[in-house]
Fold:
Amino acid sequence: MTTLPIVLKQEGCFPEALEADMAILVVDDDRNIRTLIEEILRSDGYEDIQCAESGREALELIIAGDERFSTIFLDIQMPEMDGIELCGHIRALPEYRQTPIIMLTSMKDKAHVDAAFMQGATDYMTKPIDITEMHARLRVAQMLYEEQMRAREAQNREANLRLGMEGNAHPASDTQFEFADPVIIYDVPRVIGSTEMENYLHRMSHVQRFMFSAIAFQIDRPERLFSLSTPVEFYDILTDVAEAIFENTRQYDPMISYAGEGKFIAVLPRTVQLDRDELEAELTLTLREFGLIGGDTVPMDVTVSAGDVVKMSMFDSTPQKMFNRALVSVSKERNTARRASVNMMFA
Structure:
């Protein structure tokens, strides 16, 4: 049975024209696989489909810009330029930063899957292709595509934000975002989107997921910080906080994601033992080095609270439940610290 990512709250119905509007690129050096996927897509009503037999050919199609692809299927194992390298090249293009990329692989080893997600893959499927599974992936891609269409409409209504440095667009300048939005943080090692994080863990067996734990981080007074900042400024702060979290957990090969509302989740090996107070002290030092504490480039000092390390349960091992327990832990720690501070003020 195929499980859809928990981040999708409802299945919803899509307009019949949506399939026809989506342009899909299939990249695989195996002609039989390309033909099979194309037949499945056409049977589902998708009409605009292009295929490439190598990473180089696919990159040339994308850069040429004759077609703006809304979903891309990439084979991981290809000669010359493999799918992992190609995924990195695609994600380097601003217009493809959030395009759904589904990796195709006959390799189930964790190293290749990890590498694909670190390069920006949205999801992956194993060969031989399961038609039911592909239908599920396409529904997810449709939802993401629909969200992108809504975002583009919003962009047309609002003026784009520009950083103004060498004429380059800022990663956050494509659209306005709300405080609760789990925006994707770019250019920080081991940081991926929240959807990608859940997809990564959902594809694992119960035993594989059991080997992970999670810890949550919360920016203190995030609502006030958001209200005092422009979207670009807040995004830059999020990027610096993500980098601080990475720098202080990098020895554990974390996988980090921003969950919205100033909250971050880091997935770690189950065996990791962390001292929360020591970790918070190290984060504070790093944030001070970055100029987020005692600096003049932010509207207020930026401090971060950490929760307890929460381990995956063997009997109830959905990633979302582990993440929720981690987020509850950091919320409790923040509330305890706030009460202690108030008590000290009135002591």
Q: What stands out?
A: The first helix runs from residue 17 to 21. The chain is about 45% helix and 15% strand.
